[in-house]
Amino acid sequence: MLAKQWLENAKSVMDKIESTQLENIKAAAHAMADTIEAGRWVHTFGCGHATLPIEEMYPRIGGFVGFHPMIELPLTFFTNIVGGMNVHDFVFLERVEGYGIEIMKGYTFDKRDCMWVFSHTGINAVNIDVALEAKRLGMKLIVFGSAAEAEGKQTRHSSGKTIFQLADIIVDTCVPIQDASVKLKNHFDKIGPVSTMAFVTAVWMTVTTVAEILADRGVKLYIHPSHNVPGDTTARDRLTEALDMYKKRIAGV
């Protein structure tokens, strides 16, 4: 069954992340913990399906305040497929140099912040724009993607750099550069991509480590609770507390 083939491929990627990336995950988590403890933000950015790990972090049950999602609608909402905001638009926009600089103008940053970028291949201009601007502003740049597999690929940015060449800390998601992983009879292209699963795996390995570090330091986390558990009468209050803290951080209070 191809279902089992995809599952084996996914397990293999997860096993490789565990066996090769734990030290890099710890390094990323310590940098993020320092930022959150300082009352600042871990900004998260990606394009296309690389926005899914961002949506997985916050707001999300079991996530906590400190992670700031930066999701540019034209770079993620292409589920119309055709017509307005279509797949062709997206593929064009993520390669437009300068667009990422304009995106960064919409936010306030601090040199104590981290910029956490998700990019499978690391070659598209928008991600590199964001990375270069983050470094210019003094932020630590943390990149998750298929770094080893992407080595040698030609950047689409005039800097001559891929995002992995700019990063302060890299976590390799260990995904084949093609992403799709299952061969299909009578077809050239494979099916069954594994990059989203790898991103989400690495995200929660990292975020739980951040939480562990902060809890060990005695830092209170404002956790987004489940509000679907029967008998939990304070979940709404805890949710309000977390969102109020988020608003205060956004306001710089």
Within the largest sheet, what's the order of strands? 2-1-3-4-5
CATH superfamily membership of the domain at 21-175 and 204-221: Glucose-6-phosphate isomerase like protein, domain 1
Oligomer: single chain
* C-alpha geometry: globular
Structure write-up:
The protein is an alpha/beta fold and 253 residues long. The protein has a domain of 173 residues: Rossmann fold (3-Layer(aba) Sandwich). Helices cover 45% and strands 12% of the residues. The protein contains 10 helices and 7 strands. The strands form 2 sheets. Strands 2-1-3-4-5 form a 5-stranded parallel β-sheet. A two-stranded antiparallel ribbon has the order 6-7. It starts with a helix and ends with a helix. The mean pLDDT is 96.
Task: Give a topology summary.
Elements lengths: L1 H19 L1 H16 L4 E5 L5 H6 L9 E4 L16 H7 L5 H6 L9 E5 L6 H12 L3 E6 L1 H4 L12 H4 L2 E4 L7 E3 L8 E3 L1 H22 L18 H17 L2
Parallel strand pairs: 1-2, 1-3, 3-4, 4-5
Antiparallel strand pairs: 6-7
Describe the structure concisely for a colleague.
It contains ten helices and seven strands. It is of the alpha/beta class and 253 residues long.
Task: Using brief descriptors, characterize the structure shown.
alpha/beta, 253 residues, five-stranded parallel beta sheet
